[in-house]
Amino acid sequence: MSVPSLLVRARRLAGSPWADAALALVLAAAQTAPLLFRSDVSGQPWHWWGYVVAIGASLPVAARRRAPVTVLVVCITVGSLYDLVDVVAPQPLWYGVLVALYGVASLCSAKTRLTIFTLVCGIGLLTVGSADTAARGIVMYAAAYALGRAAAGRRAQAEALEERAARLERDRRVDAERAAERERARIARDMHDVLAHSISLMVVQAEAGAAVVERAPARAADAFEAIAGTGRDALDQLRRMLSVLKDADGTRAPQPTVADVPALAAQVNGAGLAAVCVVEGEPRALPADCGVAAYRIVQEALTNAVKHSGAASAEVRLHWHADGLDLRITDDGRGAAHALPSGGHGLIGVRERAAACGGTAKAGPRSDGLPGFEVSARLPVAARLEGSAA
Length: 390
Known about the structure:
Elements: H1 3-14, H2 17-37, H3 48-56, H4 68-79, H5 95-107, H6 110-127, H7 131-212, H8 217-246, H9 261-269, E1 274-280, H10 288-309, E2 313-320, E3 325-331, H11 346-356, E4 360-365, E5 373-379, H12 381-389
Parallel strand pairs: 1-2
Antiparallel strand pairs: 2-3, 3-5, 4-5
């Protein structure tokens, strides 16, 4: 068990009713001890009244947390009756009063505790028989009050620390839940990209293979081989993504990056879309998230070209700048008029991926005025690298 846990348990035990009851018994024993171990001048036991008052001025302390003011009044009142008989041990009955005053200072509001403290000191000054006794009483009352205020301060500090710890734990859980949500969203986008792209290619290739199986068996065999290759690639990517869910510390195969874009364009060629990849400028190292985002953006754009645009050709252009990478994927299909499936999240995912890297993305009719559709994105590569180095 940790030290903070032990301290919390000790504090709770000290504040329990059983602890107060034990304290009341200790005080009663201390107040009755002079009556038990001493006798009067004649050698006779002390009067029974002394026992009653000594115990009666101590036991109420057991309820000091529930009614601190009432307990203090009872202790003072009962203690003042001690000298009603002469045959009692000479002793002041201060213990119960001091503990009760400590409770008032620790538990009551400022107005209540200051009023009670003033009254107790005033009554003490008026009822004691000598200046020395009055001075001792005031010093002990002040000490009990100060200890009570110190205990209240420690209790408030401990409660504040517990509240802060609970708040930090809540914040940690919320952050963990948000991180898990972001990870699930990322995996969902990746699975959407992989499945949409691969299944679209496999459907197109299967249809093409079925159409030429009798007329050109060699071309049909190539189509079916392309289907198998696409399926194997999709399984590999899905296996890598699912390993994130079941093995947080295991070794995983790397995610596809911008270096895999030319191979992606070549893969689409087997689906009946003449896709080319053009690279301009000097390629640079990308942060891991930017590389994956670039690949997935191109993948989503080519998938839409295969599935929805009716395009015969597409071009993927990677333009490297000193401060970033521009992606531009164009096709010669139906352009903005082609209907994307309702409820689809592909183009939304493109914008989200670019935004997650600090970039931007847009989709619409081709910017050069030719028929077709265009997806473009800009990823601020250099800024991210400099930030990472800093």
